[in-house]
Amino acid sequence: MCGIVGVVGNRNATDILMQGLEKLEYRGYDSAGVYVANGDKFSLVKSVGRIADLRSKLGIDVAGTAGIGHTRWATHGKPAEVNAHPHQSATKRFTLVHNGVIENFAEIKEEYLADHSLLGQTDTEIAVHLIGKLVDEEGLSVLEAFRKALLIIEGSYAFALMDAQDSETIYVAKNKSPLLIGLGDGYNMVCSDAMAMIRETNEYMEIHDKELVIVTKDSVSVQDYVGNTIERDSYIAELDLSDIGKGTYPYYMLKEIDEQPTVMRKLISAYSEDSQVIVEPDIVKAVQEADRLYIIAAGTSYHAGFAAKNMLEALTNTPVELGIASEWGYSQPLLSQKPLFIFISQSGETADSRQVLVRANQMGIPSLTITNVPGSTLSREATHTMLLHAGPEIAVASTKAYTAQIATLAFLAKAVGDADGNEKAKDFDLLHELSIVAQSIEASLAEKDVIAKKVEGLLASTRTAFYIGRGNDYYVAMEASLKLKEISYIQCEGFAAGELKHGTISLIEDGVPVIALISSDQAIAAHTRGNIQEVAARGANVLVIVEEGLARETDDIKVVPVHPYLSAISMVVPTQLVAYYATLQRGLDVDKPRNLAKSVTVE
Ligand code: F6R
Protein backbone atom coordinates (compact mmCIF):
# COMPACT_ATOMS: atom_id res chain seq x y z
CA MET A 1 0.00 0.00 0.00
CA CYS A 2 1.17 3.66 -0.31
CA GLY A 3 4.52 4.56 1.18
CA ILE A 4 6.00 7.86 2.37
CA VAL A 5 9.61 8.90 2.82
CA GLY A 6 10.94 12.33 3.66
CA VAL A 7 14.29 13.81 4.68
CA VAL A 8 15.63 17.16 5.75
CA GLY A 9 19.21 18.06 6.66
CA ASN A 10 22.78 17.70 5.55
CA ARG A 11 22.37 14.78 3.12
CA ASN A 12 21.72 14.18 -0.57
CA ALA A 13 17.93 14.12 -0.41
CA THR A 14 17.35 12.68 -3.89
CA ASP A 15 19.51 9.63 -3.13
CA ILE A 16 17.88 9.04 0.23
CA LEU A 17 14.36 9.43 -1.14
CA MET A 18 14.99 7.11 -4.07
CA GLN A 19 16.63 4.45 -1.91
CA GLY A 20 13.77 4.76 0.57
CA LEU A 21 11.18 4.40 -2.19
CA GLU A 22 12.98 1.30 -3.47
CA LYS A 23 12.75 -0.21 0.00
CA LEU A 24 9.02 0.60 0.04
CA GLU A 25 8.45 -1.17 -3.28
CA TYR A 26 7.58 -4.43 -1.54
CA ARG A 27 4.43 -2.86 -0.09
CA GLY A 28 2.83 -2.72 -3.55
CA TYR A 29 2.33 0.43 -5.67
CA ASP A 30 1.45 1.59 -9.14
CA SER A 31 3.12 5.02 -9.41
CA ALA A 32 5.66 7.12 -7.53
CA GLY A 33 7.03 10.62 -7.20
CA VAL A 34 9.54 12.86 -5.43
CA TYR A 35 9.71 16.54 -4.53
CA VAL A 36 13.21 17.81 -3.81
CA ALA A 37 14.05 21.27 -2.46
CA ASN A 38 17.36 23.07 -2.63
CA GLY A 39 16.97 26.48 -0.99
CA ASP A 40 14.51 28.22 -3.27
CA LYS A 41 14.85 25.74 -6.15
CA PHE A 42 12.40 22.82 -6.38
CA SER A 43 11.87 19.75 -8.51
CA LEU A 44 8.75 17.63 -8.73
CA VAL A 45 9.03 14.39 -10.70
CA LYS A 46 6.39 11.65 -10.98
CA SER A 47 6.02 8.45 -12.90
CA VAL A 48 3.57 5.61 -13.40
CA GLY A 49 5.06 2.13 -13.04
CA ARG A 50 8.18 1.02 -11.20
CA ILE A 51 10.62 3.12 -9.16
CA ALA A 52 13.14 2.40 -11.92
CA ASP A 53 10.85 4.38 -14.28
CA LEU A 54 10.87 7.31 -11.86
CA ARG A 55 14.66 7.07 -11.53
CA SER A 56 15.08 7.22 -15.29
CA LYS A 57 13.20 10.56 -15.32
CA LEU A 58 15.46 12.25 -12.76
CA GLY A 59 17.87 14.74 -14.26
CA ILE A 60 21.05 15.86 -12.43
CA ASP A 61 19.22 19.06 -11.55
CA VAL A 62 16.93 17.11 -9.23
CA ALA A 63 19.14 17.69 -6.21
CA GLY A 64 18.80 19.18 -2.76
CA THR A 65 18.92 18.62 0.97
CA ALA A 66 15.23 18.19 1.75
CA GLY A 67 12.34 16.42 0.10
CA ILE A 68 9.42 14.05 0.24
CA GLY A 69 8.67 10.97 -1.85
CA HIS A 70 5.76 8.61 -2.28
CA THR A 71 4.71 5.28 -3.71
CA ARG A 72 1.00 5.23 -4.56
CA TRP A 73 -1.44 2.33 -4.53
CA ALA A 74 -4.50 3.75 -6.25
CA THR A 75 -7.67 4.30 -4.24
CA HIS A 76 -9.17 7.56 -5.58
CA GLY A 77 -8.44 7.86 -9.30
CA LYS A 78 -6.66 5.43 -11.55
CA PRO A 79 -2.87 4.98 -11.62
CA ALA A 80 -1.75 8.00 -13.68
CA GLU A 81 0.94 10.65 -13.38
CA VAL A 82 -1.66 13.26 -12.59
CA ASN A 83 -2.84 11.22 -9.60
CA ALA A 84 0.65 10.25 -8.39
CA HIS A 85 1.95 12.09 -5.33
CA PRO A 86 3.35 14.58 -4.33
CA HIS A 87 0.44 16.94 -4.98
CA GLN A 88 0.59 20.72 -4.87
CA SER A 89 -1.64 23.59 -3.76
CA ALA A 90 -3.13 25.99 -6.30
CA THR A 91 -0.14 28.36 -6.15
CA LYS A 92 2.34 25.43 -5.84
CA ARG A 93 3.60 26.85 -2.56
CA PHE A 94 2.63 23.68 -0.65
CA THR A 95 3.51 20.12 -1.58
CA LEU A 96 1.97 17.09 0.10
CA VAL A 97 2.20 13.29 0.16
CA HIS A 98 -0.50 11.22 1.81
CA ASN A 99 -1.27 7.61 2.74
CA GLY A 100 -4.82 6.68 3.69
CA VAL A 101 -8.29 7.71 2.63
CA ILE A 102 -9.94 11.10 3.29
CA GLU A 103 -13.55 10.15 3.84
CA ASN A 104 -15.09 13.63 3.60
CA PHE A 105 -13.11 14.77 0.54
CA ALA A 106 -16.30 15.43 -1.49
CA GLU A 107 -17.73 17.61 1.29
CA ILE A 108 -14.42 19.51 1.62
CA LYS A 109 -14.37 20.14 -2.10
CA GLU A 110 -17.92 21.43 -2.07
CA GLU A 111 -17.63 23.55 1.05
CA TYR A 112 -14.13 25.03 0.70
CA LEU A 113 -12.86 24.46 -2.82
CA ALA A 114 -15.84 24.89 -5.13
CA ASP A 115 -13.88 27.40 -7.23
CA HIS A 116 -10.67 25.35 -7.35
CA SER A 117 -9.83 23.32 -10.41
CA LEU A 118 -7.92 20.16 -9.62
CA LEU A 119 -5.57 18.26 -11.88
CA GLY A 120 -6.51 14.72 -10.89
CA GLN A 121 -9.06 12.73 -8.94
CA THR A 122 -7.26 12.13 -5.65
CA ASP A 123 -8.46 13.02 -2.18
CA THR A 124 -4.88 14.18 -1.44
CA GLU A 125 -5.01 17.03 -3.91
CA ILE A 126 -8.05 18.35 -2.06
CA ALA A 127 -6.11 18.31 1.22
CA VAL A 128 -3.20 20.35 -0.14
CA HIS A 129 -5.51 22.82 -1.87
CA LEU A 130 -7.34 23.24 1.43
CA ILE A 131 -4.10 24.03 3.28
CA GLY A 132 -3.12 26.51 0.56
CA LYS A 133 -6.50 28.20 0.71
CA LEU A 134 -6.39 28.55 4.50
CA VAL A 135 -3.00 30.29 4.23
CA ASP A 136 -3.86 32.46 1.23
CA GLU A 137 -7.38 33.47 2.13
CA GLU A 138 -7.52 33.35 5.91
CA GLY A 139 -3.99 34.62 6.47
CA LEU A 140 -3.05 31.66 8.68
CA SER A 141 0.54 30.56 9.21
CA VAL A 142 1.50 27.19 7.70
CA LEU A 143 1.25 25.54 11.08
CA GLU A 144 -2.15 27.07 11.84
CA ALA A 145 -3.46 26.14 8.40
CA PHE A 146 -2.20 22.55 8.67
CA ARG A 147 -3.74 22.25 12.13
CA LYS A 148 -7.05 23.64 10.94
CA ALA A 149 -7.07 21.34 7.91
CA LEU A 150 -6.43 18.35 10.19
CA LEU A 151 -9.50 19.27 12.21
CA ILE A 152 -11.60 19.46 9.03
CA ILE A 153 -10.28 16.26 7.42
CA GLU A 154 -11.93 12.98 8.43
CA GLY A 155 -10.53 9.56 7.67
CA SER A 156 -7.18 7.85 7.71
CA TYR A 157 -3.99 9.65 6.84
CA ALA A 158 -0.27 9.99 7.18
CA PHE A 159 0.74 13.35 5.71
CA ALA A 160 4.11 14.91 4.96
CA LEU A 161 3.89 18.57 3.91
CA MET A 162 6.51 21.00 2.61
CA ASP A 163 6.34 24.76 2.16
CA ALA A 164 8.30 26.35 -0.69
CA GLN A 165 8.96 29.37 1.52
CA ASP A 166 10.75 27.23 4.12
CA SER A 167 12.42 24.21 2.59
CA GLU A 168 14.13 23.35 5.90
CA THR A 169 10.97 21.97 7.50
CA ILE A 170 8.69 18.97 6.95
CA TYR A 171 5.30 19.00 8.70
CA VAL A 172 3.77 15.60 9.34
CA ALA A 173 0.60 14.28 10.95
CA LYS A 174 -1.09 10.93 11.20
CA ASN A 175 -4.36 9.26 11.99
CA LYS A 176 -4.77 5.48 11.61
CA SER A 177 -2.03 5.22 8.93
CA PRO A 178 1.53 4.34 9.97
CA LEU A 179 4.29 6.98 10.12
CA LEU A 180 7.59 7.11 11.99
CA ILE A 181 10.31 9.70 12.55
CA GLY A 182 13.92 8.65 11.96
CA LEU A 183 16.62 10.58 13.81
CA GLY A 184 20.04 11.22 12.30
CA ASP A 185 23.08 13.35 12.97
CA GLY A 186 22.41 16.66 11.20
CA TYR A 187 19.35 15.30 9.42
CA ASN A 188 15.96 13.81 10.27
CA MET A 189 13.56 11.64 8.34
CA VAL A 190 9.92 10.64 8.18
CA CYS A 191 8.76 7.37 6.80
CA SER A 192 5.78 5.01 6.76
CA ASP A 193 8.06 2.04 7.33
CA ALA A 194 11.28 1.67 9.32
CA MET A 195 12.67 -0.51 6.55
CA ALA A 196 12.98 2.46 4.22
CA MET A 197 15.15 4.34 6.75
CA ILE A 198 17.32 1.55 8.08
CA ARG A 199 20.23 2.44 5.77
CA GLU A 200 20.28 5.92 7.30
CA THR A 201 19.38 5.39 10.94
CA ASN A 202 18.11 2.86 13.46
CA GLU A 203 16.92 5.49 15.92
CA TYR A 204 13.21 6.15 15.64
CA MET A 205 10.42 8.10 17.30
CA GLU A 206 6.78 7.02 17.20
CA ILE A 207 3.98 9.33 16.16
CA HIS A 208 0.56 8.59 17.62
CA ASP A 209 -2.79 9.26 16.01
CA LYS A 210 -3.85 12.89 15.85
CA GLU A 211 -0.37 14.24 16.45
CA LEU A 212 1.36 16.85 14.34
CA VAL A 213 5.15 16.82 14.14
CA ILE A 214 7.46 19.58 12.93
CA VAL A 215 10.69 18.09 11.62
CA THR A 216 13.81 20.10 10.82
CA LYS A 217 17.38 18.92 10.39
CA ASP A 218 18.15 19.08 14.08
CA SER A 219 14.79 19.19 15.85
CA VAL A 220 11.60 17.18 16.13
CA SER A 221 8.63 18.78 17.86
CA VAL A 222 5.58 16.61 18.56
CA GLN A 223 2.30 18.44 19.26
CA ASP A 224 -1.38 17.66 19.62
CA TYR A 225 -3.84 19.39 17.31
CA VAL A 226 -4.34 22.20 19.83
CA GLY A 227 -0.63 22.99 19.84
CA ASN A 228 0.42 21.45 23.18
CA THR A 229 3.92 20.01 23.07
CA ILE A 230 4.24 16.27 23.72
CA GLU A 231 7.49 14.77 25.07
CA ARG A 232 8.42 11.55 23.32
CA ASP A 233 11.54 9.39 23.72
CA SER A 234 13.22 7.82 20.74
CA TYR A 235 14.14 4.12 20.60
CA ILE A 236 16.73 2.01 18.83
CA ALA A 237 15.23 -0.62 16.50
CA GLU A 238 16.79 -4.06 16.27
CA LEU A 239 16.66 -4.18 12.50
CA ASP A 240 19.64 -5.41 10.58
CA LEU A 241 20.34 -4.12 7.07
CA SER A 242 21.17 -7.67 5.92
CA ASP A 243 17.66 -8.82 6.97
CA ILE A 244 16.11 -6.74 4.25
CA GLY A 245 18.35 -7.86 1.38
CA LYS A 246 17.66 -10.74 -1.03
CA GLY A 247 21.20 -12.10 -0.79
CA THR A 248 21.78 -14.58 -3.61
CA TYR A 249 18.11 -15.48 -3.93
CA PRO A 250 16.20 -14.64 -7.11
CA TYR A 251 13.12 -13.72 -5.06
CA TYR A 252 12.36 -12.72 -1.47
CA MET A 253 9.60 -15.33 -1.33
CA LEU A 254 12.06 -18.18 -1.85
CA LYS A 255 14.44 -16.71 0.75
CA GLU A 256 11.60 -16.40 3.23
CA ILE A 257 10.36 -19.94 2.59
CA ASP A 258 13.91 -21.16 3.22
CA GLU A 259 14.18 -19.17 6.46
CA GLN A 260 11.36 -21.10 8.14
CA PRO A 261 13.45 -23.73 9.98
CA THR A 262 15.58 -20.88 11.40
CA VAL A 263 12.45 -19.00 12.45
CA MET A 264 11.17 -22.08 14.29
CA ARG A 265 14.47 -22.30 16.19
CA LYS A 266 14.43 -18.57 16.94
CA LEU A 267 10.96 -18.95 18.41
CA ILE A 268 12.16 -21.81 20.58
CA SER A 269 14.87 -19.60 22.02
CA ALA A 270 12.58 -16.55 22.34
CA TYR A 271 9.84 -18.40 24.21
CA SER A 272 11.81 -20.81 26.42
CA GLU A 273 14.25 -20.78 29.29
CA ASP A 274 15.94 -23.82 30.81
CA SER A 275 13.86 -26.07 28.55
CA GLN A 276 10.61 -24.55 29.85
CA VAL A 277 8.11 -22.66 27.73
CA ILE A 278 7.97 -19.04 28.90
CA VAL A 279 5.24 -16.58 27.96
CA GLU A 280 4.66 -13.33 29.89
CA PRO A 281 2.56 -14.14 32.99
CA ASP A 282 0.14 -11.28 32.22
CA ILE A 283 -0.64 -12.80 28.84
CA VAL A 284 -1.18 -16.26 30.33
CA LYS A 285 -3.45 -14.71 32.95
CA ALA A 286 -5.45 -12.83 30.30
CA VAL A 287 -6.18 -16.10 28.51
CA GLN A 288 -7.00 -17.89 31.77
CA GLU A 289 -9.47 -15.16 32.71
CA ALA A 290 -11.25 -15.25 29.35
CA ASP A 291 -14.28 -17.44 28.75
CA ARG A 292 -13.81 -17.23 24.96
CA LEU A 293 -10.95 -16.30 22.65
CA TYR A 294 -11.85 -14.29 19.56
CA ILE A 295 -9.17 -14.39 16.87
CA ILE A 296 -9.49 -11.47 14.47
CA ALA A 297 -7.31 -11.23 11.37
CA ALA A 298 -7.22 -10.99 7.59
CA GLY A 299 -5.96 -13.20 4.75
CA THR A 300 -3.08 -15.48 5.62
CA SER A 301 -3.12 -14.38 9.26
CA TYR A 302 -6.78 -15.38 9.47
CA HIS A 303 -5.84 -18.79 8.12
CA ALA A 304 -3.13 -19.11 10.78
CA GLY A 305 -5.85 -18.55 13.38
CA PHE A 306 -7.79 -21.50 12.00
CA ALA A 307 -4.69 -23.68 11.92
CA ALA A 308 -4.16 -23.02 15.64
CA LYS A 309 -7.81 -23.19 16.75
CA ASN A 310 -8.01 -26.89 17.67
CA MET A 311 -4.71 -26.77 19.55
CA LEU A 312 -5.72 -23.62 21.44
CA GLU A 313 -9.05 -25.12 22.44
CA ALA A 314 -7.49 -28.41 23.53
CA LEU A 315 -4.69 -26.86 25.60
CA THR A 316 -6.48 -23.85 27.08
CA ASN A 317 -9.87 -25.49 27.44
CA THR A 318 -11.43 -22.29 26.13
CA PRO A 319 -13.62 -21.99 23.01
CA VAL A 320 -12.04 -20.12 20.11
CA GLU A 321 -14.01 -18.14 17.55
CA LEU A 322 -12.57 -16.68 14.34
CA GLY A 323 -13.51 -13.33 12.81
CA ILE A 324 -12.61 -11.79 9.46
CA ALA A 325 -11.43 -8.34 10.47
CA SER A 326 -13.09 -6.47 7.60
CA GLU A 327 -16.45 -8.05 8.49
CA TRP A 328 -16.13 -7.46 12.22
CA GLY A 329 -15.75 -3.77 11.51
CA TYR A 330 -19.53 -3.55 11.20
CA SER A 331 -20.90 -6.97 12.07
CA GLN A 332 -19.62 -8.22 15.39
CA PRO A 333 -21.32 -11.32 16.86
CA LEU A 334 -22.83 -11.45 20.31
CA LEU A 335 -19.81 -11.67 22.60
CA SER A 336 -19.30 -13.87 25.65
CA GLN A 337 -19.11 -12.41 29.17
CA LYS A 338 -15.30 -12.35 29.34
CA PRO A 339 -13.87 -12.15 25.86
CA LEU A 340 -10.19 -11.83 24.94
CA PHE A 341 -9.54 -10.52 21.43
CA ILE A 342 -6.44 -11.95 19.74
CA PHE A 343 -5.27 -10.02 16.69
CA ILE A 344 -2.93 -11.85 14.34
CA SER A 345 -1.10 -9.58 11.94
CA GLN A 346 2.29 -9.89 10.30
CA SER A 347 2.56 -6.14 9.69
CA GLY A 348 0.67 -5.00 12.76
CA GLU A 349 -0.79 -2.23 10.57
CA THR A 350 -3.80 -3.82 8.87
CA ALA A 351 -6.56 -1.20 8.95
CA ASP A 352 -9.36 -3.78 8.99
CA SER A 353 -7.98 -5.37 12.17
CA ARG A 354 -7.25 -2.03 13.70
CA GLN A 355 -10.81 -0.80 13.43
CA VAL A 356 -11.90 -3.82 15.48
CA LEU A 357 -9.15 -3.13 18.03
CA VAL A 358 -10.23 0.51 18.37
CA ARG A 359 -13.76 -0.69 19.13
CA ALA A 360 -12.49 -3.36 21.57
CA ASN A 361 -10.57 -0.65 23.43
CA GLN A 362 -13.67 1.53 23.59
CA MET A 363 -15.59 -1.44 25.01
CA GLY A 364 -12.84 -2.20 27.54
CA ILE A 365 -12.17 -5.67 26.06
CA PRO A 366 -8.62 -6.92 26.73
CA SER A 367 -6.56 -7.78 23.68
CA LEU A 368 -3.42 -9.53 22.53
CA THR A 369 -1.65 -8.77 19.24
CA ILE A 370 0.53 -11.41 17.65
CA THR A 371 2.74 -9.58 15.17
CA ASN A 372 6.09 -9.54 13.43
CA VAL A 373 6.63 -5.80 13.91
CA PRO A 374 7.45 -4.45 17.36
CA GLY A 375 6.01 -0.98 17.89
CA SER A 376 3.43 -1.43 15.11
CA THR A 377 0.02 0.15 15.59
CA LEU A 378 -1.77 -3.08 16.54
CA SER A 379 1.01 -3.86 19.00
CA ARG A 380 0.98 -0.42 20.60
CA GLU A 381 -2.76 -0.26 20.97
CA ALA A 382 -3.45 -3.77 22.23
CA THR A 383 -3.16 -4.70 25.90
CA HIS A 384 -0.49 -7.34 25.21
CA THR A 385 1.86 -8.31 22.39
CA MET A 386 3.64 -11.51 21.37
CA LEU A 387 6.24 -11.18 18.62
CA LEU A 388 6.76 -13.60 15.73
CA HIS A 389 10.57 -13.21 15.58
CA ALA A 390 10.40 -14.03 11.85
CA GLY A 391 12.56 -11.11 10.66
CA PRO A 392 11.25 -8.72 7.98
CA GLU A 393 8.91 -10.37 5.48
CA ILE A 394 9.27 -8.53 2.19
CA ALA A 395 7.55 -10.76 -0.41
CA VAL A 396 3.89 -9.85 -0.73
CA ALA A 397 2.93 -13.51 -0.34
CA SER A 398 3.27 -14.30 3.34
CA THR A 399 5.11 -17.53 4.15
CA LYS A 400 7.38 -17.45 7.19
CA ALA A 401 4.98 -15.17 9.07
CA TYR A 402 2.16 -17.73 8.68
CA THR A 403 4.21 -20.59 10.11
CA ALA A 404 5.60 -18.33 12.85
CA GLN A 405 2.05 -17.28 13.76
CA ILE A 406 0.98 -20.89 14.30
CA ALA A 407 4.13 -21.62 16.30
CA THR A 408 3.66 -18.51 18.45
CA LEU A 409 0.07 -19.51 19.17
CA ALA A 410 1.42 -22.94 20.14
CA PHE A 411 3.63 -21.27 22.76
CA LEU A 412 0.64 -19.38 24.06
CA ALA A 413 -1.53 -22.51 24.19
CA LYS A 414 1.18 -24.58 25.86
CA ALA A 415 1.99 -21.90 28.46
CA VAL A 416 -1.67 -21.54 29.42
CA GLY A 417 -2.17 -25.33 29.44
CA ASP A 418 0.88 -25.77 31.70
CA ALA A 419 -0.36 -23.08 34.07
CA ASP A 420 -3.79 -24.75 34.20
CA GLY A 421 -2.33 -28.25 34.74
CA ASN A 422 -4.00 -29.37 31.50
CA GLU A 423 -3.21 -33.07 30.82
CA LYS A 424 -2.88 -32.60 27.07
CA ALA A 425 -0.42 -29.76 27.64
CA LYS A 426 1.63 -32.00 29.92
CA ASP A 427 1.92 -34.59 27.13
CA PHE A 428 2.86 -32.00 24.51
CA ASP A 429 6.61 -31.34 24.57
CA LEU A 430 6.44 -28.23 22.38
CA LEU A 431 10.16 -27.49 22.33
CA HIS A 432 10.97 -30.98 21.12
CA GLU A 433 8.02 -31.06 18.69
CA LEU A 434 8.97 -27.72 17.16
CA SER A 435 12.51 -28.89 16.56
CA ILE A 436 11.00 -31.86 14.66
CA VAL A 437 8.92 -29.36 12.69
CA ALA A 438 12.12 -27.49 11.76
CA GLN A 439 13.63 -30.76 10.52
CA SER A 440 10.47 -31.64 8.61
CA ILE A 441 10.54 -28.25 6.85
CA GLU A 442 14.22 -28.78 6.00
CA ALA A 443 13.39 -32.15 4.44
CA SER A 444 10.64 -30.54 2.30
CA LEU A 445 12.98 -27.74 1.25
CA ALA A 446 15.47 -30.35 0.05
CA GLU A 447 12.77 -31.57 -2.39
CA LYS A 448 12.43 -28.30 -4.29
CA ASP A 449 13.44 -29.82 -7.64
CA VAL A 450 10.93 -32.63 -7.27
CA ILE A 451 8.17 -30.17 -6.38
CA ALA A 452 9.08 -27.87 -9.29
CA LYS A 453 8.87 -30.83 -11.68
CA LYS A 454 5.50 -32.02 -10.31
CA VAL A 455 4.06 -28.53 -10.68
CA GLU A 456 5.23 -28.19 -14.26
CA GLY A 457 2.76 -30.60 -15.76
CA LEU A 458 -0.01 -29.60 -13.38
CA LEU A 459 -0.27 -25.83 -13.15
CA ALA A 460 1.69 -24.26 -16.01
CA SER A 461 -1.36 -23.41 -18.09
CA THR A 462 -4.51 -24.10 -16.04
CA ARG A 463 -7.05 -21.40 -15.17
CA THR A 464 -8.48 -23.17 -12.13
CA ALA A 465 -7.31 -25.51 -9.39
CA PHE A 466 -8.49 -26.94 -6.08
CA TYR A 467 -6.85 -27.80 -2.79
CA ILE A 468 -8.75 -30.30 -0.65
CA GLY A 469 -8.21 -31.61 2.87
CA ARG A 470 -9.98 -32.48 6.10
CA GLY A 471 -9.47 -31.13 9.63
CA ASN A 472 -6.24 -29.18 9.87
CA ASP A 473 -5.51 -30.06 6.25
CA TYR A 474 -8.63 -28.13 5.27
CA TYR A 475 -7.24 -25.06 7.02
CA VAL A 476 -3.95 -25.54 5.19
CA ALA A 477 -5.94 -25.91 1.95
CA MET A 478 -7.43 -22.44 2.56
CA GLU A 479 -3.98 -20.92 2.94
CA ALA A 480 -2.43 -22.95 0.10
CA SER A 481 -5.12 -21.82 -2.32
CA LEU A 482 -4.72 -18.15 -1.31
CA LYS A 483 -0.97 -18.44 -1.89
CA LEU A 484 -1.45 -19.98 -5.33
CA LYS A 485 -4.06 -17.50 -6.52
CA GLU A 486 -2.39 -14.35 -5.25
CA ILE A 487 0.86 -14.85 -7.13
CA SER A 488 0.08 -17.22 -10.04
CA TYR A 489 -3.40 -15.77 -10.78
CA ILE A 490 -4.81 -19.30 -11.01
CA GLN A 491 -8.34 -19.28 -9.62
CA CYS A 492 -7.98 -21.73 -6.78
CA GLU A 493 -10.35 -22.84 -4.05
CA GLY A 494 -9.39 -24.47 -0.76
CA PHE A 495 -12.12 -26.94 0.07
CA ALA A 496 -13.10 -29.24 2.88
CA ALA A 497 -12.65 -32.55 1.04
CA GLY A 498 -16.01 -33.93 2.20
CA GLU A 499 -17.88 -30.79 1.15
CA LEU A 500 -16.90 -30.99 -2.50
CA LYS A 501 -19.62 -33.48 -3.39
CA HIS A 502 -22.27 -31.09 -2.06
CA GLY A 503 -22.05 -28.86 -5.09
CA THR A 504 -18.56 -27.88 -6.16
CA ILE A 505 -17.66 -31.25 -7.66
CA SER A 506 -19.67 -30.12 -10.69
CA LEU A 507 -16.65 -27.98 -11.58
CA ILE A 508 -14.37 -30.98 -11.86
CA GLU A 509 -13.73 -32.01 -15.45
CA ASP A 510 -10.89 -33.46 -17.48
CA GLY A 511 -7.52 -32.06 -16.48
CA VAL A 512 -8.64 -29.83 -13.56
CA PRO A 513 -5.78 -29.87 -11.02
CA VAL A 514 -6.78 -31.03 -7.54
CA ILE A 515 -4.11 -31.03 -4.84
CA ALA A 516 -5.02 -33.22 -1.87
CA LEU A 517 -3.46 -32.77 1.58
CA ILE A 518 -3.29 -35.71 3.98
CA SER A 519 -1.73 -35.61 7.42
CA SER A 520 -2.01 -36.90 10.95
CA ASP A 521 -4.86 -39.40 11.17
CA GLN A 522 -5.43 -42.76 9.44
CA ALA A 523 -9.25 -42.67 9.67
CA ILE A 524 -9.51 -39.13 8.28
CA ALA A 525 -6.93 -39.98 5.62
CA ALA A 526 -9.13 -42.85 4.41
CA HIS A 527 -12.03 -40.45 3.83
CA THR A 528 -9.85 -37.99 1.95
CA ARG A 529 -8.60 -40.89 -0.20
CA GLY A 530 -12.27 -41.55 -1.02
CA ASN A 531 -12.69 -37.93 -2.12
CA ILE A 532 -9.58 -38.23 -4.27
CA GLN A 533 -11.17 -41.19 -6.03
CA GLU A 534 -14.32 -39.17 -6.66
CA VAL A 535 -12.47 -36.30 -8.37
CA ALA A 536 -10.09 -38.64 -10.24
CA ALA A 537 -13.09 -40.54 -11.63
CA ARG A 538 -14.29 -37.24 -13.10
CA GLY A 539 -11.01 -36.54 -14.86
CA ALA A 540 -9.17 -34.41 -12.24
CA ASN A 541 -5.39 -34.28 -12.41
CA VAL A 542 -4.59 -35.14 -8.77
CA LEU A 543 -1.40 -34.36 -6.83
CA VAL A 544 -1.14 -35.77 -3.31
CA ILE A 545 0.90 -34.11 -0.54
CA VAL A 546 0.98 -36.56 2.35
CA GLU A 547 2.74 -37.26 5.61
CA GLU A 548 5.09 -40.25 5.44
CA GLY A 549 3.40 -43.05 7.31
CA LEU A 550 0.10 -42.34 5.57
CA ALA A 551 1.73 -42.31 2.13
CA ARG A 552 1.17 -44.67 -0.76
CA GLU A 553 3.80 -45.37 -3.35
CA THR A 554 2.00 -43.36 -6.03
CA ASP A 555 1.71 -40.24 -3.87
CA ASP A 556 3.63 -37.23 -5.10
CA ILE A 557 5.14 -35.24 -2.23
CA LYS A 558 5.93 -36.79 1.15
CA VAL A 559 6.29 -34.74 4.32
CA VAL A 560 8.14 -35.84 7.46
CA PRO A 561 5.43 -36.31 10.15
CA VAL A 562 5.12 -33.89 13.07
CA HIS A 563 2.83 -33.54 16.07
CA PRO A 564 -0.79 -33.14 14.84
CA TYR A 565 -1.12 -29.75 16.58
CA LEU A 566 1.70 -28.47 14.37
CA SER A 567 0.95 -30.29 11.12
CA ALA A 568 -0.27 -27.10 9.40
CA ILE A 569 3.29 -25.75 9.61
CA SER A 570 4.96 -28.70 7.92
CA MET A 571 2.13 -29.35 5.42
CA VAL A 572 2.00 -25.76 4.17
CA VAL A 573 5.66 -25.64 3.11
CA PRO A 574 5.29 -27.81 -0.04
CA THR A 575 2.23 -25.73 -0.99
CA GLN A 576 4.28 -22.53 -0.69
CA LEU A 577 6.78 -24.08 -3.10
CA VAL A 578 3.95 -25.18 -5.40
CA ALA A 579 2.76 -21.54 -5.58
CA TYR A 580 6.32 -20.28 -6.09
CA TYR A 581 7.18 -22.66 -8.95
CA ALA A 582 3.78 -22.36 -10.63
CA THR A 583 4.28 -18.57 -10.70
CA LEU A 584 7.82 -18.82 -12.06
CA GLN A 585 6.69 -21.26 -14.73
CA ARG A 586 3.94 -18.87 -15.77
CA GLY A 587 6.54 -16.11 -16.21
CA LEU A 588 5.19 -13.84 -13.46
CA ASP A 589 6.90 -11.68 -10.82
CA VAL A 590 6.76 -13.80 -7.66
CA ASP A 591 7.43 -10.97 -5.21
CA LYS A 592 5.19 -8.31 -6.71
CA PRO A 593 1.83 -9.70 -7.76
CA ARG A 594 -0.52 -7.28 -9.48
CA ASN A 595 -2.99 -5.22 -7.43
CA LEU A 596 -1.66 -6.41 -4.08
CA ALA A 597 -0.04 -4.52 -1.24
CA LYS A 598 2.04 -5.97 1.57
CA SER A 599 0.69 -3.77 4.28
CA VAL A 600 -3.02 -3.04 3.83
CA THR A 601 -3.47 0.24 5.63
CA VAL A 602 -6.89 1.24 4.27
CA GLU A 603 -10.22 -0.36 5.18
C1 F6R B 1 -1.25 -13.11 1.75
C2 F6R B 1 -1.07 -12.06 2.74
C3 F6R B 1 -2.28 -11.32 3.20
C4 F6R B 1 -2.10 -10.84 4.65
C5 F6R B 1 -3.27 -9.94 5.05
C6 F6R B 1 -3.17 -9.51 6.49
O1 F6R B 1 -0.05 -13.73 1.45
O2 F6R B 1 0.02 -11.75 3.13
O3 F6R B 1 -3.43 -12.09 3.06
O4 F6R B 1 -2.03 -11.95 5.49
O5 F6R B 1 -3.29 -8.81 4.22
O6 F6R B 1 -1.97 -8.84 6.72
P1 F6R B 1 -1.34 -8.75 8.16
O7 F6R B 1 -0.96 -10.13 8.57
O8 F6R B 1 -0.15 -7.86 8.00
O9 F6R B 1 -2.40 -8.19 9.05
Automatic annotation (TrEMBL):
Keywords: Aminotransferase, Cytoplasm, Glutamine amidotransferase, Repeat, Transferase. Its EC number is 2.6.1.16. This is Glutamine--fructose-6-phosphate aminotransferase [isomerizing]. The keyword Transferase applies. It catalyses: D-fructose 6-phosphate + L-glutamine = D-glucosamine 6-phosphate + L-glutamate. Gene3D superfamilies: Glucose-6-phosphate isomerase like protein, domain 1, Glutamine Phosphoribosylpyrophosphate, subunit 1, domain 1. Residues 283-422, 455-593 form the SIS domain. The active site is at C2 (nucleophile), K598 (for fru-6p isomerization activity). The keyword Magnesium does not apply. It is found in: Cytoplasm. GO terms for cellular component: cytosol. Homodimer. Catalyzes the first step in hexosamine metabolism, converting fructose-6P into glucosamine-6P using glutamine as a nitrogen source. GO terms for biological process: carbohydrate metabolic process; fructose 6-phosphate metabolic process; protein N-linked glycosylation; UDP-N-acetylglucosamine metabolic process. InterPro entries: GATase_2_dom, GFAT, GFAT_N, GlmS/AgaS_SIS, GlmS/FrlB_SIS, Ntn_hydrolases_N, SIS_dom, SIS_dom_sf. GO terms for molecular function: carbohydrate derivative binding; glutamine-fructose-6-phosphate transaminase (isomerizing) activity. Residues 2-218 form the Glutamine amidotransferase type-2 domain. Its main location: cytoplasm. Pfam families: GATase_6 (PF13522), SIS (PF01380).
